[in-house]
């Protein structure tokens, strides 16, 4: 004993910083996803209800009904599953997206400093990410839809719920009714939606970031003269716009998917994609079809709240993704 106290930290900061740098995409995506998922979940719950309601209803009125019948918890029913699973799915998605872009860079593919090359790489990377991730995310999204639509599904069965079953009870009932395959109800639609939607999303995001001055190295340059905004606002702007526009394009497929899954969970007769889409647009009576534009308006019922959710969720997602990523890049080496 020489009287000197030796520092023996529990965590080696140098090693920890190196770990963060090696796993920057995962850490950034997880951190950003927790915040954005929690912020946007009440709007996502309203969106699912609007997609499956049989009579037109405004968002404020629906929100009032949910609050009156289910309380605040009704807006967050089933939150913990997407809070945990979507966060890890997004981390995996961003990792696949990032690694695919690195493969293009390492092989010197599509290297021109043009919006076409940048967008194509983003779209291909997004499609790869969406296709692979859909296999893991499909069961969790089905359970989320089940939890969000508990009362609607019960009403379809002629049952009145005094209290909605919990998440584990919902999973157990799906499994007991249809086995493991039941957790993949509507998977083909889920796969197509995620592949196309994620491809469009990353294609648009990378293209917008290029227009807003991001360099091929990933560094944010000066914003263009026609939109001289603060550089820190660029991720939120591009994330919001790409989230809203890609979702609007893929929205009809999501409506059909949700409707197919709702009918399957309620034990109703299966309807194919085209039959479901036709009935949503033209109504259930072929002899007396609804006006086309009225049917299309029904398809996009809930798009407003979904757009608001996309602005909130994806704007915050990319803002915090970039913030955490920049923080990790600036960590000291020792």
From TrEMBL:
UniProt key word Repeat: yes
GO (cellular component) term, any one: mitochondrial membrane
Annotated Solcar repeat ranges: 20-103, 117-211, 230-327
GO molecular function: transmembrane transporter activity
Membrane topology: Multi-pass membrane protein
The keyword Protein biosynthesis belongs to this UniProt entry's keyword annotation: no
SUPFAM superfamilies recorded: Mitochondrial carrier
Compartments it resides in: Mitochondrion membrane
Keywords: Membrane, Mitochondrion, Repeat, Transmembrane, Transmembrane helix, Transport
InterPro entries hit by this protein: MCP_dom_sf, MCP_transmembrane, Mitochondrial_Carrier
Family: Belongs to the mitochondrial carrier (TC 2.A.29) family.
Name of the protein this chain belongs to: Mitochondrial carrier
